[in-house]
User: Which sequence fits this backbone?
């Protein structure tokens, strides 16, 4: 069991007879911080807030919809439902994976926080469900497309059945009254399919044509429309050939491609919806020494707010009393917190680490620095160059050429043999039907997206894969991207007769009383040493564990810990904190951040601490280097230890102490010199640069702003995924080229044949369908390519 | 072969019925969540609990 949280959940699962969860889950959820969440959920019990969340009111219950983040598979939804139904106030519960929602019917006035706590205790994030307009539209569109697809599918089967009879009749001979019967039956079905399912192609082609743009939908429209009209003509006059089967088949295949594309987009929009500001919805306002929980929207300037330790700060404000430390890594990328003193500003979105403090509000919701950064990101996004335009331009050339060719061959044949000219022109149009070309890219991208999804990645921008395959610069953020936000103790230099191991264990015992992020470097399980302390040290450590509230180690904000053990003072912390006791402290060197342990007036030990690298960070960097891609680290952190971490990664270049604007400037500069830039980041400060880079990738635990701005979002923390995605992108590009190669050579061969009158129209339709099928099957092979590193 | 004049309309009637069924299925939201229902058969069902709550007879 990794933590008490898991233990509690495991016990809960076992006691409620839900062991089946373990058989069926496919992912692990991150452990929740329950203590922190409890206070947040309590806010939703507030009558006015609860009122606003109710969707429907029944006789004995009220329906409330909640958004659940972190659900990955059906086992999750099953577990959540069972867990919520255990609550006595809950009448019914239904989880929908599709929109990541939980709908509960709950007794009137029963606390909603119980439900939320129940869900959170399983390790999922939960918040009220707010439907965005865009999402509802997408949902409806999805349904409509599915209806169109099923009509086309059914129509294809029916018409195809008759078409087989007709084709067989062409070969074996068939009575003309039966031929006409087949045609007359196919006609209404095909008409229905065309008018119902292919409508979108017509609309889109017309919409683009009106503004002078030629899109793939245009030849599709022309082909479908002329083939239908010609078939109707042939049916009425009992002459020529009918193409009803190719019409519905074209429609069906194109709709399938479109449906998968749409589903993918829908999933992405779900992800967008799941991202939310981590800003709290409620704040503790102090009026006449009493604390009131109020929605953050109601807070006005000069309000006095209490910020508890561990809370995210809801609005910008000035510190009124005491001092505290805030984690501002989302703005600055600095992994060490900043000490804030009276009169200094605290920013919304940052985390109050050490003490509960009061602030006076300076900027309210919508006006904070956090909001300003977000709007800066929004404006950066519109500047992004889109490769899609180029693809459209190529497509429109192809469209123009096909239309022209079809017209020319029709005209030439009109000259030679007028009775054949219409059918030949149509053959050219059908045989060259740009399906294969049209499908070449989207099928590969869809296939790549589904492959990526297995790896825990989601594509947010349709061009991301194509662009990723062409990058020649890979830029990484440090804090949170290459490092995981925790620290590690990489060097221990004892200066007394205590061993390194003893000193480390003593520091571990002391650090339990600190909330400073650096304390994460001192954990028994963090690897540096697992040995037992010597007997002498056991006693000292026991003194710490036996200490009670009156004499336990004290944390001094921004400095370190001090502990009085039988009148001897132990100190652990920054060098200037130790200097107060010891006098001058000379640090071993300046390559990393040194934490000093002292006893009375003697220094016992130096601990070299630095950011802990994510596993595989080195391997990923060397992968990119081996592939002749320049690697670069851009970080807001300017400390020595950042340099030492970066040096250990051996990248081509690195820049320190950068603001979000600086990062953006560097990336834009590279792009202006013609480089294609991959940017991997996670924080709010990476938002602008993520949306401006050629490909932006947000890694696990990324802040929402980074997730929204990135082209590819990863939900797992394995950096190797980025390497694999790059390989996948290159493979996908290869597949796209293969598809194009096939489609072009097919057209190159088939169009002249058709123009010369060698291709019967039914054969043209068959050839067209087969060529599309080849493209689709080729793209599907992408799901099975090997992405592992073969160099090792 | 005259039987075709009779069989084809029957086939078309089936086709229309199937379409109606599909429309109904889509509109009633059966395809909204494709991932969940694939797994639903594994749940050795305890929906009785759900029902007992529905008619208000309290918990287990």
Assistant:
């Amino acid at each position: 069991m990794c933590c008490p949280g898991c233990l509690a959940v495991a016990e809960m699962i076992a006691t409620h007879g839900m062991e089946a969860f373990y058989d069926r889950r496919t992912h692990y959820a991150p452990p929740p911080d329950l203590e922190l969440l409890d206070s947040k959920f309590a806010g939703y019990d507030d009558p006015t807030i609860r009122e606003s969340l109710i969707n429907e009111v029944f006789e004995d219950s009220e329906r409330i919809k909640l958004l659940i983040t972190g659900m990955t598979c059906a086992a999750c939804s099953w577990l959540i439902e069972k867990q919520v139904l255990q609550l006595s106030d809950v009448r019914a519960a239904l989880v929908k994976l599709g929109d990541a929602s939980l709908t509960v019917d709950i007794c009137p006035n029963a606390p909603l926080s119980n439900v939320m706590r129940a869900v959170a205790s399983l390790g999922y994030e939960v918040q009220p469900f707010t439907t965005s307009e865009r999402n509802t539209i997408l949902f409806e569109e999805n349904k409509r497309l599915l209806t169109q697809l099923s009509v086309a599918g059914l129509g294809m089967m029916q018409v195809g059945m008759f078409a087989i009879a007709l084709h067989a009749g062409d070969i074996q001979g068939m009575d003309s009254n039966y031929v006409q019967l087949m045609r007359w039956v196919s006609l209404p079905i095909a008409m229905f399919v065309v008018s119902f399912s292919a409508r979108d192609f017509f609309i889109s082609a017309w919409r683009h044509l009106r503004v002078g743009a030629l899109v793939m939908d245009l030849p599709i429209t022309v082909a479908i429309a002329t083939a239908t009209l010609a078939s109707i003509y042939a049916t009425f006059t009992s002459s020529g050939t009918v193409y009803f089967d190719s019409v519905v088949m074209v429609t069906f295949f194109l709709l399938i491609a479109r449906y998968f594309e749409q589903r993918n987009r829908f999933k992405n929009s779900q992800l967008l919806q799941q991202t939310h500001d981590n800003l709290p919805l409620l704040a503790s306002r102090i009026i006449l020494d009493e604390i009131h929980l109020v929605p953050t929207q109601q807070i006005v300037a000069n309000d006095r707010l209490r910020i508890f330790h561990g809370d995210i700060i809801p609005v910008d404000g000035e510190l009124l009393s005491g001092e505290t430390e805030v984690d501002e890594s989302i703005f600055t990328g600095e992994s060490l917190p900043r000490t804030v003193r009276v009169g200094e500003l605290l920013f919304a979105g940052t985390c109050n680490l050490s003490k509960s403090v009061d602030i006076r509000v300076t900027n309210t919701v919508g006006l904070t620095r956090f909001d300003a950064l977000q709007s800066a990101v929004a404006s950066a996004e519109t500047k992004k160059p889109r490769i899609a335009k180029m693809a459209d331009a190529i497509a429109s050339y192809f469209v123009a050429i096909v239309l022209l060719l079809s017209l020319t061959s029709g005209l030439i044949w009109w000259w030679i043999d007028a009775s054949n000219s219409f059918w030949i022109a149509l053959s050219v149009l059908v045989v060259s039907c740009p399906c294969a070309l049209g499908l070449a890219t989207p099928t590969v991208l869809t296939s790549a997206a589904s492959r990526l999804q297995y790896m825990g990645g989601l594509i947010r921008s349709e061009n991301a894969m194509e662009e990723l395959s062409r990058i020649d610069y890979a830029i990484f953020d440090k804090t949170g991207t290459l490092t995981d936000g925790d620290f590690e103790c990489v060097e221990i230099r004892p200066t007394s007769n205590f061993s390194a191991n003893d000193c480390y264990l003593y520091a571990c015992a002391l650090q339990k009383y600190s909330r400073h992020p650096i304390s994460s470097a001192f954990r028994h399980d963090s690897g540096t040493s697992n040995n037992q302390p010597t007997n002498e040290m056991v006693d000292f450590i026991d003194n710490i564990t036996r200490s009670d509230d009156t004499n336990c180690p004290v944390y001094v904000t921004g400095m370190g810990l001090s502990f009085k053990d039988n009148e001897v003072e132990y100190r652990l912390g920054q060098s200037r904190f130790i200097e107060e006791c010891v006098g001058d402290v000379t640090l071993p060197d300046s390559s990393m951040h040194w934490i000093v342990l002292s006893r009375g007036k003697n220094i016992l030990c130096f601990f070299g601490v630095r950011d802990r690298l994510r596993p595989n960070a080195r391997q990923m960097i060397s992968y990119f280097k081996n592939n002749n891609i320049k690697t670069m680290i851009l970080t807001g952190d300017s400390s020595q230890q950042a340099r030492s971490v970066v040096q250990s990664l051996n990248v081509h270049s690195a820049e320190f102490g950068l603001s979000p604007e600086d990062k953006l400037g560097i990336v834009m500069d590279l792009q202006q010199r013609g480089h294609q830039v991959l940017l991997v980041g996670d924080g709010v400060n990476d938002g602008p640069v993520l949306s401006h880079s050629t490909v932006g990738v947000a890694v696990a635990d990324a802040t929402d702003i980074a997730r929204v701005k990135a082209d590819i979002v990863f939900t797992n923390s394995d950096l190797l995924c980025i390497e694999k995605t790059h390989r996948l992108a290159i493979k996908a590009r290869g597949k796209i080229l293969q598809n194009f190669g096939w489609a072009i050579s097919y057209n190159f061969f088939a169009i002249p044949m058709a123009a010369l009158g060698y291709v019967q129209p039914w054969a043209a339709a068959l050839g067209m369908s087969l060529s599309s099928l080849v493209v689709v099957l080729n793209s599907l092979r992408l799901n099975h390519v090997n992405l592992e590193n073969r160099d090792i | 072969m005259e039987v075709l004049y009779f069989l084809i309309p029957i086939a078309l009637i089936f086709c229309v019925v199937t379409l109606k069924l599909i429309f109904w299925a889509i509109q009633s939201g059966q395809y909204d969540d494709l991932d969940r229902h694939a797994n639903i058969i594994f749940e050795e069902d305890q929906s009785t609990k759900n029902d007992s709550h529905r008619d208000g007879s309290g918990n287990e």
Notes: The longest helix of chain B spans residues 4-27. The interface with chain A takes residues 1, 4-5, 8, 11-12, 15, 18-19, 22-23, 26-27, 31-36, 38-40, 42-44, 46, 49-50, 53-54, 56, 58-59 of chain B (CB under 8 Å). Helices of chain B lie at 4-27, 36-39, 47-54. The radius of gyration of chain B is 21 Å.
